[in-house]
Write a structure and sequence with these properties.
Number of helices: 3
Shape: elongated
Order of helices and strands: HEEEEHEEEEEH
Structural class: alpha+beta
Helix content: 25-40%
Mean pLDDT: 89
Radius of gyration: 17 Å
Low-confidence stretches: none
Number of strands: 9
Length: 170
């Protein structure tokens, strides 16, 4: 993720999540993971960049602690293999059920130019990269990062509701 975008997401979306009790627990150039903990569960918000294109996804999940494995929502095979059973590192990737925020194109929050490319569908590319053959749906501009952050914050309301519904189910 570009440094400018990453800083903007941490500033705006991170501030929103902090106000709701989420804390940044893991961060790299490719992802940010926020946790909100209680004695019986960990709520997770993950912002992860795509490896090949100029978009990221936002997913949420909940990991129930000290409950039978059928209802915990943790995929222990992945969790133990990739995080050595450390709950400080748990991500939505370690959970069976997760909720993806709808982005500006599907589940993707595109931060570059977006094309409807022939034979490829919707493709995100850097503004200075070679453009695919197709129709440009969105052009990067100076407001793109702010618009994405505002969209995420607006759509987080659905994620909070999803988490609340999951907590009531236990």
């Amino acid at each position: 993720m570009k440094k400018e975008l990453r800083n903007k997401v941490l500033e705006k979306v991170g501030d929103e999540l902090n106000c709701k009790g989420f804390l940044l627990v893991d961060s790299s150039r490719k992802w940010m993971i926020f946790h909100r903990k209680s004695d019986s569960y960990i709520e997770i918000v993950q912002i992860a960049q795509d490896k090949y294109e100029t978009f990221f996804s936002v997913s949420v999940s909940i990991a129930f602690l000290d409950v039978p494995s059928e209802i915990t929502n943790i995929n222990y095979v992945f969790f133990n293999e990739f995080n050595d059973g450390d709950f400080k590192k748990i991500s939505t990737d370690d959970c069976r059920e997760k909720f993806y925020l709808k982005g500006n194109f599907g589940e993707a929050f595109h931060y570059g130019d977006v094309y409807l490319a022939l034979g490829q569908g919707i493709v995100g590319v850097n503004p200075d990269s070679k453009k695919p053959i197709g129709i440009r749906l969105k052009k990067f501009n100076s407001e793109t990062y702010d618009e994405l952050c505002d969209l995420i914050i607006q759509r987080l309301k659905k994620a909070y509701r999803w988490l609340d519904n999951k907590k009531q189910g236990i």
